[in-house]
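hey can u check if this looks right to u? its 304 residues, i copy pasted from the old doc so theres a chance i mangled smth
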Amino acid sequence: MTFNGENLKQSLNSSSPSSPSSSLSSTSLDGLLNRTITVELQKPTDHHENQLLTTIPNRSKKYATTLNHFEKQCISELQSALAACFLAEHSLPCAGHFASLTEAYNWPAVYSKRVSRFCRSLPAFNALPSFSDQLVILRSAYLYVLSLRAFFAYDHSLGGYYILADEAGTESLFLSASLAEGHYKSEWIEESNRMLRQFQGVMESDEVIRDLLIGFFLFRGSPLYKKCSPQSLELVSYQQQRYLRLLYRYLVHKWANLKVAGEKYSAILKVVETFEELTARSKVLLQEVDVSLFSDLLKEIYEL
């Protein structure tokens, strides 16, 4: 399927569906994303490479273990954007649960406006030099942003997690992992559960770590992001490194110990690979699903 952005440029407008499979109408996403770029590209002060920040800087001099004002501001900017666009689904009244795996396939579509508003609220996203590059990044990051939130919120005692029942965000629905039983091999399910526990163990229920990783994955979702223009790729690479550096600095601040922070940072980088594999597994499973079950928007995101 050739991506032209037409379906992704449609944000879903709630029609107060009474069930997860209710029909959805759409409005233009253009109003949610900046069509005229007014934010200039902030020139980085460091040399940027495409490689991840996988090594901890060697500090021979005294190193500050508390966040400075600028670092706090950057983290606050990200968290404020997320808080303004997403809700704590588990705290909402539960309207029921998905009765079948087929019903659950389109749940990410409910978040289309929220994901796009989150992107638009970040200066770095608005600084991308073209609307087409914004759409590429949005499409690349869409599933990663939602999956990270879902994996973080997964409740092992309940065997699933809550998602929004509709775009209005007044109720939630429970999505049970047991729906996968009988559809996929038990070995695959057990391995996925092991990886999920490993992911959550490293995250330590810390929302700041989660949010900084969301910022990172916004600019490093699927390999599709590499289709951006060269000018956008420079900014994208910078933002990937920026969020990883903020993550390391936050860990130093949290633990007030460079050795511990370095160990935690390395563990998180390893679990990033686990998260990417979990997300990739989800996308592979979707290839086996009847394409007609998906909305046009998700067909483009899932590359079906």
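The longest helix spans residues 258-286.
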